[in-house]
Design brief:
Helices cover about 45% and strands about 25% of the residues. It has seven helices and 22 strands.
């Protein structure tokens, strides 16, 4: 049935054309924006995901800037530490030269002072935008990542860089006392004592009775053995005198022998070396070690004469906190060292040695060692003897600088030059450790920066795969829609001609 009131064909053609025009508009939008999903109405879920990821991309751009700034800051600190290492190495060369007697130590000291001033200049200038990593102990955090969990929570990750203090500051001694058990003892017994007399430590060897023909005796001192065989009946005094003459004839450094009524006394005046003693005898003239270092001998035939220097023994188990201060008093003069962040008893022992050497009392020498039990020891020798030696500790202070003692390096005397050599070695190791730490940190930062750059590119690619239009496909669809649009126009035109055809029925 045909009707002039209702043109069904025209209605169908019109709907077709509207659909084609709608698709044409969408295709043209994809072409103009380059996106298949440009707003929430296109696909709300995908659009929301893309926007979240776009915000993360912008965050990672800020992180890249932060990592770049951090790398530059640490790079400046690393270069400063390397430069300080080089300057300290040159200073060590000057100090080594000062060990020679026939040199002008005053001129060498002038060169050392110039190197010291240059080190202070380097550490003072080693800042990037006001941040100096070679002064102080506070950690520095560098923004390194943006972490998103499965529940949508977001958190920032940071790389923590430890400052490496290369200043020469003395620090501030705290006020809260620590107990002796928390840090150590003097001589392994108490927190105080006195330095050994100049005559050193001793060991007594006693002949118990007169010897008869054929009786033998031998004494080993510092690896040298002296033997005796009685050819006639003799007294303890005779045998002691024989061993005294033989031992003294060996010319052992710091070791002497004396005879007092048949008791052979061996003395050790070596500041930092022990002397082993072994005794043996056959027959009636028994030989025993009766007294070692002022105490009853632990063994009747052997003993070790301790070094003349007294030791400050630091706890092998106690922990150290930043700001813990340690004070060694020698005679009437006290010397302080305040521990920095992450330091150990080794650092404390070496720091106190540097403190003493920086204002070296007349006749005093120092040495840092580690015993068989793993305990660090500061040995203090006093060639006058009898001075007070004590150790105390407090908390709550301000740490000494990593190059503590640098300002007091002095080579104008033989004693000070000798002390300066070991102290500058400690400083060189400190600077090397600082440069190595900064190098590792900078390498980590640069690696993270490369990762963040690659991650940002990957996120961008992922967002593109979600919302970007496939232009090849869009182009082909556009051509198809253009043909469909032309055909729809013709179909609508034909449908609109249908009522006109009805007029021919009434002619």
């Amino acid at each position: 049935m045909s009707s002039i009131l209702t043109n069904t064909s025209a209605m169908v053609a019109l709907q077709t054309m509207k659909s084609i025009n709608k698709n044409m508009a969408m295709t043209q939008s994809e072409i103009s924006t380059g996106k298949s999903i440009s707003s929430a109405k296109d696909n709300a879920a995908i659009w929301a995901i893309s926007k979240v990821m776009e915000s993360d991309v912008n965050g990672f751009k800020a992180i890249s800037d932060s990592l770049g700034l951090g790398s530059s800051t640490v790079g400046v600190a690393r270069k400063a530490a390397e430069t300080v290492t080089d300057l300290l190495t040159k200073m060590k060369g000057k100090i080594v030269a000062s060990q020679e007697q026939n040199v002008d130590r005053q001129k060498i000291q002038t060169d050392i002072s110039a190197l010291r001033d240059q080190i202070e200049s380097v550490t003072g200038a080693a800042q990037f935008y006001g941040l100096n990593m070679v002064k102080g102990t506070a950690d520095v955090n560098i923004l390194s990542s943006l972490d998103r969990d499965g529940n949508g929570g977001v958190s920032a990750s940071q790389i923590t860089i430890a400052r490496q203090d290369l200043s020469a500051d003395g620090g501030v001694y705290g006020a809260t006392a620590l107990t002796a058990a928390a840090y150590g003892t003097v001589g392994g017994i108490t927190a105080s004592g006195t330095t050994t007399a100049a005559t050193g430590k001793t060991a007594d060897l006693t002949f118990a009775a007169a010897a008869v023909i054929g009786d033998t005796a031998s004494i080993e001192v510092a690896g040298n053995t002296i033997n005796y065989t009685a050819t006639a009946t003799d007294s303890a005094t005779v045998r002691a005198a024989y061993f005294v003459a033989q031992i003294n004839a060996l010319g052992l450094e710091g070791v002497t022998a004396a005879n007092t009524a048949g008791v052979l006394t061996l003395s050790n005046t070596n500041a930092f070396n022990t002397v082993a003693v072994n005794a043996a005898a056959t027959g009636t003239g028994t030989l025993v070690v009766t007294n070692v270092n002022g105490a009853v001998a632990a063994s009747p035939t052997t003993g070790t004469i301790e070094q003349r220097a007294e030791t400050v023994d630091f706890s092998a188990t106690a922990g150290i906190n930043e700001g813990d201060g340690f004070k060694v008093t020698v005679g009437t003069t006290s010397f302080n060292y305040i521990a920095g962040k992450g330091e150990t008893m080794e650092d404390v022992a070496k720091g106190l040695k540097t403190a003493i050497d920086s204002n070296l009392p007349v006749g005093v020498t120092t040495k840092v060692t580690k015993d068989d039990a793993g305990m660090w020891q500061l040995s203090v020798d006093d060639d006058t003897g009898g001075r007070t030696l004590s150790l105390a500790a407090t908390s709550g202070g301000t740490a000494s600088g990593g190059l503590f003692g640098l300002n007091n390096i002095d080579v104008t005397t033989t004693e000070k030059a000798n002390a300066a050599l070991s102290n500058v070695e400690t400083m060189i190791n400190t600077a090397i450790d600082a440069a190595a730490a900064f190098g590792s940190a900078q390498g980590r930062i640069d690696t993270q920066a490369d990762f963040v750059s690659g991650l940002t590119d990957a996120l961008k690619a992922g967002i593109g795969s979600l919302v970007d239009a496939d232009l090849e496909e869009t182009s082909a669809r556009l051509q198809a829609l253009q043909v469909q649009q032309q055909l729809a126009t013709q179909a609508l035109s034909i449908a609109n001609q249908a009522p006109q055809n009805l007029l021919s029925l009434f002619r």
